[in-house]
Design a protein that fits this description.
By secondary structure, the chain is an alpha/beta fold. It has ten helices and 14 strands. It folds into two domains: about 160 residues, Rossmann fold, CATH 3.40.50.620; about 150 residues, Riboflavin kinase-like (Elongation Factor Tu (Ef-tu), domain 3, Beta Barrel). Helix 1 links the parallel strand 2 and strand 3. Adenosine-5'-triphosphate binds next to helix 1, strand 5 and helix 7.
């Protein structure tokens, strides 16, 4: 998939573009259904499947006080979109100017004049233009006027309710990794660099941990998790992970740390990716390091049992 950052970078005239539009945070199953439809229609037309997305996420510009954690970074979002088979993603800078573009201008100037839309694929609740005032009826009437077809997809329903980015965020925050997996079609993942911790894990507990440097990404709620760990060289290892502030040691600050199984290398400074498979328990305060050590031993046994079927499948994505 080709990625184009901004309209000024888009030099070529796209043949018969089939356009889908959205924030696509998380690239969940609802989003994936739109991409599949756009790809299918572009193949049928001999055209280009094109996703238009925005950076930063509009909520950061429209409601800066809401510190919404995002499910995917831009980079990860583009990787996942690429896997959907799209030909091109156009990433537009979302600022106050863009936010003030009327729904009319959004279609007339952007979709028609600039991009030459042949067809448009949107979700069942698509809203666009200034204050989201443009709706499906407006899009359809524009389509009749300008001669582009409109395809409406979904809602994609899982467990009785439409899939949405908000639902994914909630499941992740609740530590419901199975629920998140059902909505995403993959394990919830967090990537980051391995940094130094307090150095207690290996020395005091006999379980060294890789501490992940995190900033403002969406993290599963506090607790102990069975995780698959993707190393920079692509290897996939089993791991037992803890997210919390280590109450046994009164650390205070939040840490994300993982004991890697069957591994004794040095990965300080490496970028790794955690695939959260299942929450095993809540974080607890133990009376002594020995008591915590015994519990971590049990956690690891559970983690091995939970992870085995996923590792055997080879990609960590499907059992
Ligand atoms: C599988 C696992 C479970 C853990 N569970 C707890 C817990 O319930 N309570 C707690 O205080 N710390 C827990 N920890 C965190 C340890 O306190 C931490 O790994 C140790 O203090 C080492 O920290 P360091 O890497 O900063 O040196 C757990 C760690 C792992 C790997
Ligand atoms: N469950 C779903 N089924 C079909 N289409 C969906 C579904 N969820 C979202 N979409 C569509 O995906 C497109 C992009 O949505 P976008 O990510 O911008 O919406 P959002 O409101 O930020 O996130 P979400 O609706 O996923 O919580 C929209 O056209 C939307 O209607």
């Amino acid at each position: 998939m080709q990625v184009v950052m901004g309209l000024e970078e888009l030099r070529q005239r796209l043949p018969r573009p089939v356009i889908t539009i959205g924030n696509f945070d998380g690239v969940h199953l609802g989003h994936q259904a739109l991409f599949a439809k756009a790809v299918e229609r572009a193949k049928a037309l001999g055209g280009t499947s094109l996703a238009v997305t925005f950076e930063p996420h509009p909520i950061r510009v429209l409601r800066p006080a809401v510190n919404l954690p995002l499910i995917t970074t831009l980079r990860q979002k583009l990787v996942l979109m690429g896997q959907s088979g799209l030909d091109l993603t156009l990433c537009l800078r979302f600022d106050q100017d863009f936010a003030s573009l009327s729904a009319d201008a959004f279609v007339d100037k952007l979709l028609v004049s600039r991009l030459g839309a042949a067809e448009v694929v949107v979700g069942y609740d698509f809203a666009f233009g200034h204050k989201g005032l443009g709706d499906l009826d407006l899009l359809r009437s524009k389509g009749e006027r300008w001669g582009f077809a409109v395809h409406v997809v979904g809602p994609v329903i899982i467990d009785g309710r439409p899939v949405s980015s908000t639902r994914v965020r909630q499941e992740v925050a609740d530590g419901n990794m199975e629920g998140a997996r059902h909505l995403l079609g993959r394990h919830y993942q967090v990537a980051g660099r391995v940094v130094a911790g307090h150095g207690r894990g290996g020395r005091l507990l006999g379980f060294p941990t890789a501490n992940l440097k995190v900033s403002d990404e969406l993290l599963p709620g506090p607790g102990v998790y069975a995780v698959l760990v993707e190393l920079a060289d692509g290897r996939l290892l089993k791991g037992a992970n803890n997210i919390g502030n280590n109450p046994t040691f009164d650390d205070g600050a939040l840490s994300v740390e993982t004991h890697l199984l069957d591994f004794d290398g040095d990965i300080y400074g490496q970028d790794i990716r955690l695939h959260f498979v299942e929450r095993l328990r809540g974080e607890q305060r133990f009376d002594s390091p020995e008591a915590l050590k015994a519990q971590i031993g049990l956690d690891i046994e559970r983690a091995i049992a939970v992870l085995e079927p996923w590792v055997r499948s080879g990609n960590g994505g499907e059992k």
